[in-house]
């Protein structure tokens, strides 16, 4: 640190002294002036700085800089001769410039200090938290809001790693990548939720020197938003419940004036909304007194009162209850039940009970057995179709279970509690099928003099109708069915007024529909209407791995029908069933098992190969074309069939033994053994 001697205690000397007293790199050694009462002299004394009337009293070797602010040029030359050569003698003119520079510096320092203080006030006053890190991910600034959210003291965080306080902070990554991230959610250690935006800090040279984040505590906002959302959902739900209720509902305020009614109320009373809202509670009463007013007067509920309401004097039963919130009466709510509709519903219920056994679906997807990939695909498509109202076309050979799929689709749909009507289009004549499907008006059918008939489309309204063998419909009936699918309405025979229907159509066929289209036997537009969701049900010969489980299910069914207790089937009998191609599919399999069970004794528990009637298995018609000779032993017949199956499978897969073994569900080692056994290597 350099030492300074000030000569001259006037205004200039005082200015230099006051400036130097605030510096850390210059030390004032003394002040010289002939007037001991000069300003600089007094200031020096008060700060413990030596003073003298003659500069010679100070050791010239201890002085590095001399400020001559006396204005005397002769003194300046004298000083140069007295002090050492390395001592800097600053004349008065330069001293004044130096003083002004120091004053300006101090001015700017003070100004900068005020600006810094003001910025710090602003920095700490904003609601958002702000935190910054340097290149090493250590915190170099943090405002009070950030400290409050983090529940730490801001001073204690400076110089410490950011992850000590925010373990999931992404600021180090922002520094590395130089990317900006906006409005990212983050949860702090104390459970608070914040939304933060992160920015890199870049200096004037374009160098990244750190990163900082601005974040806001949204814990209360999220909580408040959730509460508002819950309230809105509750309000919406209550409004939906009131508006969708089949019971008439009316609400009045504490003075008895109408506030709210639902559509069922206007339907039952015959009054419009404007006839009730803002009107006295008695406006809808045609006979009797208003129960709303009674509930408001007594502050007690009123139940089961018979009244007549509206211009048509509709007979109703009324229940009214006061609305009391925080022990304050806010109004009352009334529920009106139409006794006319109740009587009508009782009749409908009696009618429904009489037909429910014939108009309900019997099966679900749990009743369908299928582990093969083809069957699993069909099941997935059917389950998907059940969740929509799309028209379904079930395709497959006879006996594959198309009706079972139709039952399951209806049972899994939203219409499962409504009717399921089944129609075999190939079992009835065209005239009879038309009358059954579409119904007729009185006198429209020759030979039937009185009465009208509802068609099956009307019976199936709000439910499903299964049209089996749809490919057998005549052109005329195809046109009428197309109208139902397009316009959602049906027209009775002899009728002139279309009847709207809401029915889901499930159709099935085992015919070649594409060939029928080419031959003009089936309408193209109807085909595309029906074929929106085609589901192909594979034949049993393509999924023989399902035969054991199907047999198990059929045995349970046949046990109930025949009063038997057959528990299982032998392996040889099961192998015998698996080598057959089943052109009649599951229906034929059930028929064979049924005949086999008839041949069993009442106490038999296992169905063996001896019970299976060989004449029912048309093996010669199977694809492998293996002929069974009844004159040889059973083992020889089974060997013949097995050899044919192996030969057929090898041919199908072009000699690929891995694919052959996988298809037959046997190991590759077993396949090689059997190929060698039958000379097929």
Spatial strand arrangement across the major sheet: 12-11-16-15-14-13
By secondary-structure content and strand pairing, the structural class works out as alpha/beta
Shape: elongated
What low-confidence regions span 5 or more consecutive residues with pLDDT below 50? Answer: 350-358, 619-627
Average residue-wise pLDDT: 84
Query: How many strands?
Result: 27
Summarize the amount of helix as a percent range: 40-55%
Treating each run of at least 4 consecutive H or I residues as one helix, how many helices?
A: 24
Q: What integer value in Å does the Rg equal?
A: 51 Å
Distance between the termini: 107 Å
Range of strand content: 15-25%
Largest sheet: 6 strands, antiparallel
What does this structure look like?
The longest helix has 34 residues, at 92-125. The chain contains 24 helices and 27 strands. Helix 1 (11-21) links the parallel strand 1 and strand 2 (26-32). Strands 12-11-16-15-14-13 form a six-stranded antiparallel β-sheet. A five-stranded parallel β-sheet has the order 3-2-1-4-5, sandwiched between helices. The chain has a five-stranded antiparallel β-sheet with strand order 7-6-10-9-8. Mean pLDDT is 84; it is low at 350-358 and 619-627. Helices cover 41% and strands 20% of the residues. It starts with a strand and ends with a helix.
């Amino acid at each position: 640190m350099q030492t300074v001697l000030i000569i001259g205690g006037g205004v200039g000397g005082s200015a230099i002294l006051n400036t130097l007293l605030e510096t850390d790199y210059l030390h004032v050694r003394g002040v010289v002036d002939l007037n001991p009462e000069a300003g600089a002299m007094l200031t020096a004394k008060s700060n413990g700085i030596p003073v003298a009337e003659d500069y010679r009293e100070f050791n010239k070797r201890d002085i590095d800089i001399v400020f001559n602010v006396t204005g005397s040029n002769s003194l300046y030359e004298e000083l140069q001769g007295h002090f050492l050569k390395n001592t800097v003698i600053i004349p008065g003119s330069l001293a004044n410039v130096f003083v002004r520079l120091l004053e300006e510096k101090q001015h700017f320092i003070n100004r900068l200090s005020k600006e810094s203080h003001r910025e710090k006030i602003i920095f700490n006053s904003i609601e958002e938290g702000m935190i910054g890190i340097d290149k090493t991910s250590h915190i170099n600034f943090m405002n009070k809001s950030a400290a409050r959210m983090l529940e730490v003291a801001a001073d204690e965080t400076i110089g410490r790693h950011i992850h000590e306080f925010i373990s999931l902070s992404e600021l180090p990554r922002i520094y590395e990548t130089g990317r900006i991230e906006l409005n990212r959610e983050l949860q702090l250690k104390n459970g608070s939720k914040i939304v933060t935006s992160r920015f890199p800090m870049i200096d004037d040279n374009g160098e990244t020197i750190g990163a900082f984040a601005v974040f806001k505590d949204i814990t209360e906002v999220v909580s408040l938003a959730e509460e508002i959302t819950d309230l809105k959902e509750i309000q919406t739900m209550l409004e939906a419940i009131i508006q969708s209720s089949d019971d008439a509902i009316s609400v009045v305020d504490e003075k008895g004036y109408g506030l709210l009614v639902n559509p069922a109320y206007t339907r039952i009373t015959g009054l419009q909304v404007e006839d009730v809202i803002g009107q006295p509670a008695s406006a809808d009463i045609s006979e009797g007194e208003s129960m709303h007013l009674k509930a408001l007067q007594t502050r007690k509920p009123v139940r089961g009162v018979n009244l007549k309401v509206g211009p048509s004097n509709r007979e109703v039963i009324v229940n009214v209850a006061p609305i009391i919130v925080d022990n304050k009466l806010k109004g009352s709510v009334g529920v009106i039940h139409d006794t006319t509709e109740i009587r009508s519903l009782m009749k409908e219920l009696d009618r429904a009970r009489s037909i429910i056994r014939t108009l309900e679906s019997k099966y679900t997807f749990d009743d369908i057995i299928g582990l093969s990939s083809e069957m699993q695909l069909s099941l997935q498509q059917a389950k998907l179709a059940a969740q929509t109202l799309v028209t379904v076309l079930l395709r497959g050979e006879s006996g594959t279970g198309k009706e079972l799929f139709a039952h399951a689709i209806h049972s899994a749909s939203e219409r499962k509690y409504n009717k399921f009507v089944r129609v075999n289009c190939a079992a009835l004549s065209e005239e009879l099928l038309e009358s059954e499907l579409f119904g007729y008006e009185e006198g429209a059918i020759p030979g039937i003099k009185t009465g009208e008939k509802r068609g099956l489309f009307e019976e199936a309204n709000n439910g499903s109708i299964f049209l089996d063998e749809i490919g057998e419909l005549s052109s005329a009936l195809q046109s009428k069915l197309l109208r139902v699918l397009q316009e959602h309405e049906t027209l009775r025979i002899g009728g002139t007024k279309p009847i709207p229907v809401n029915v889901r159509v499930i159709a099935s066929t085992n015919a070649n529909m594409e060939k029928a289209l080419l031959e003009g036997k089936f309408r193209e537009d109807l085909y595309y209407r029906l074929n929106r969701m085609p589901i192909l049900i594979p034949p049993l010969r393509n999924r023989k791995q399902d035969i054991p489980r199907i047999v198990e299910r059929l045995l349970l069914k046949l046990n109930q029908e025949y009063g038997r207790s057959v528990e299982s089937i032998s392996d040889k009998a099961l192998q015998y069933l698996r080598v057959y191609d089943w052109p009649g599919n599951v229906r034929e399999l059930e028929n064979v098992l049924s005949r086999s069970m008839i041949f069993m004794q009442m106490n038999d528990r296992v169905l063996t190969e001896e019970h299976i009637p060989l004449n029912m298995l048309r093996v010669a018609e199977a694809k492998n074309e293996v002929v069974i000779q009844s004159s040889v032993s059973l083992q020889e017949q089974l060997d013949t069939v097995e050899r044919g199956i192996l030969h057929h499978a090898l041919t199908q897969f072009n000699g690929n033994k891995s694919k052959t073994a996988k298809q037959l569900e046997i190991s590759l080692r077993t396949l090689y053994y059997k190929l060698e056994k039958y000379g097929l290597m």
